[in-house]
Amino acid sequence: MRRNICVVIGYDGTDYNGFQSQPGGNTVQDKLEDALLTLTGENIRVTGSGRTDAGVHARSMHVNFRTDSHIPASRWTLALNARLPDDIVVHSAFEVPDDFHARRTASRKTYRYTINCNKNPDVFRRKYEFHHHTPLNVEAMREGLQHLIGEHDFSSFTSPLSTKPSHIRTLYEARLETEHRYDVFSSAMAEADAKRYPGKQRGIIHLYVTGNGFLYNMVRIIAGTMMQVGEGKIAPEHISDILNARDRSRAGPTAVPHGLTLWNVEYGETLPLTDHV
Amino acid sequence: MRRNICVVIGYDGTDYNGFQSQPGGNTVQDKLEDALLTLTGENIRVTGSGRTDAGVHARSMHVNFRTDSHIPASRWTLALNARLPDDIVVHSAFEVPDDFHARRTASRKTYRYTINCNKNPDVFRRKYEFHHHTPLNVEAMREGLQHLIGEHDFSSFTSPLSTKPSHIRTLYEARLETEHRYDVFSSAMAEADAKRYPGKQRGIIHLYVTGNGFLYNMVRIIAGTMMQVGEGKIAPEHISDILNARDRSRAGPTAVPHGLTLWNVEYGETLPLTDHV
Question: Which family does it belong to (chains A, B) (predicted)?
Fold first, then answer.
């Protein structure tokens, strides 16, 4: 019987047309399949735990594939990394049960959207976070986010291009974490800032959402809407109305892709195989 | 009288031939002077607080220049950022006394060299840290570093190409900070690792050195030597002998440039103007 191998990968999506193969080429899937071909001599098709759009990143994404190769599981990581470009990395590899399917078996997915509200962009993180020039009201954003938790019809938070038969999804967690990071700022400027933007803060905001599945553009629309909450354009309690309207035009704009990272995918009891150190 | 303006900049050095202008072009200085020309119409020469080699980064570096322009200090940041590529950022700008000189007035400089000892490289930090495939003995490195603190002749830790009349410099501080960062690792692999590399750890190591000045390649040779200490190739107490030998061939190799970042430059009482938030 052919073996079922699962690899956990990460990638910098900046230079790719997303994860999934498409006519235009230059996708993460293409690079993985090229590496597998040179390693095994087999034309292998891989299955990712999800699609990511052009410019979106992944910190930890599971991918599985079938192979006749006898390479021990412990050797796949190094062998594939030697054949992959340096913006894609295989973190680990292991053999999985025959019925394991990276997308269908997944129980929870977590995405992170990062917003830099410092005065200036961070040259070292510029490809992985959106630079929002003005401060945001983090408490209002936290409050707004709570209305999205639970099982809902997320039609207001998906692209009209979505072809899914149902827009009902469950959001298990939605939280904001803030981070202070280098920004040169005189006391005088900080005071002017506090006066000009009352109740708003500078710094880095990481928005984490965990759910059983996400619709097309869903996290980016949540991020774009939360930025309007943080700007004071949408009241936090208004998020429920937007959700109930099931109308994309009621939510905020779709945030740019480069701030988004597929953070983690969980498989419940199916894959208790790896620790994240 | 012409004004003396100081700007604090940061840059991702990956795509540049270092800070300082040179015949081959494509330096950070060139980009700054181009931006100043389009902004002021003046051919301005800037002075950096130090030179960085090709591929080396700067988180915070002071640069000063003279101008006849009447642009208020508070406007320089935004105006220059609009004219600079996105891998160079101006953090702040202010008018300084006529005798301020970004290099000569500097009292202390801090560099950071980052070593990633995780099993796999980090795709998001790959341009800013050196990936050392095996674990290192952090305590031995800490011990070795202590021997470098103080006033010494650093001839063993500079390139033979150095043309400085004196190799005596003072290192005020030298310390290691460790950071745990995502690495997928099974318990079985962690155990095998502990057996294979006793006394050594995985994770991220940030090596910070603060001194009154640094010789050509000095921080990169310190980093390369400390990695050999961490590997167990050089005993920590042997660092004193290497220093006393005043012989470049006794120290370890020059670590690759991309792990190095000019972290901060201090001007004592001269520039108590900015807070780092």
Answer: Belongs to the tRNA pseudouridine synthase TruA family.
Contact A275 B190 (CB under 8 A): yes
CATH number of the structural domain spanning residue A208: 3.30.70.660
- The answer to whether residue A8 sits within a structural domain is yes
Closest CA to A160 of A209, A217, A225: A217
Q: Which residues in A lie closer than 8 A to residue B91 (C-beta atoms)? A: 119-120, 183-184
- Answer whether residue A119 is part of any domain: yes
Q: Are residues A208 and A126 in the same domain?
A: yes
Q: Check if B43 contacts A (Cβ < 8 Å).
A: no
Residues in A closer than 8 angstroms to B75, CB to CB, are none
Among chain B residues, the shortest Cα distance to A88 is held by: B123
Of the three residues B105, B132, B160, the one that is the final residue of a domain is: B105
Q: Is B70 left (phi over 0), alpha (psi -120 to 50) or beta?
A: alpha
User: Cα separation of A163 and B191, whole Å?
Assistant: 47
Domain extent, residue A17, equals 3-105
The CATH number for B57's domain is: 3.30.70.580
- B121: contact with A, CB 8 A cutoff: yes
Does a structural domain hold residue A66? Answer: yes
Residue A60 forms contact with B (CB below 8 Å)? yes
Task: Give the pLDDT mean for A64-82.
Answer: 94
Strand B130-131 and strand B108-116: pairing? parallel
Instruction: Show which of B86, B105, B124 is a domain's final residue.
Output: B105
- Is the same domain home to B167 and B219? yes
**B101-142: per-residue pLDDT in tens?**
999 999 999 999 999 999 899 999 999 999 999 999 999 999
What string of pLDDT tens digits covers the 277 residues of chain B?
799 999 999 999 999 999 999 999 999 999 999 999 999 999 999 999 988 999 999 999 999 999 999 999 889 999 999 999 999 999 989 899 999 999 999 999 999 999 999 989 999 999 999 999 999 999 999 999 999 999 999 999 999 888 899 999 999 999 999 998 877 666 777 788 889 999 999 999 999 999 999 999 999 999 999 999 999 999 999 999 999 999 999 999 999 999 999 999 999 876 655 443 3
Residue A269 lies in a domain: no
Q: Taking CA A51 as the corner, what is the angle to CA A47 and CA A55, rounded to the nearest 5 degrees?
A: 130
Q: Which residue has the tokens 């660092």?
A: B239
Partner B, chain A 138-197, Cβ-Cβ below 8 Å: 180, 182-187, 190
Are B85 and B46 in a shared domain? Answer: yes
CB-facing half-sphere around the CA of B253: CA atoms within 13 A: 6
Structure tokens at A16: 């790719």
Strands A47-48 and A57-67 turn out to be antiparallel
Which DSSP letter does residue B237 get? G
Please tell me the total count of domains within chain A: 2
Residue A53 annotated to the active site: yes
ipTM surpasses 0.85: yes
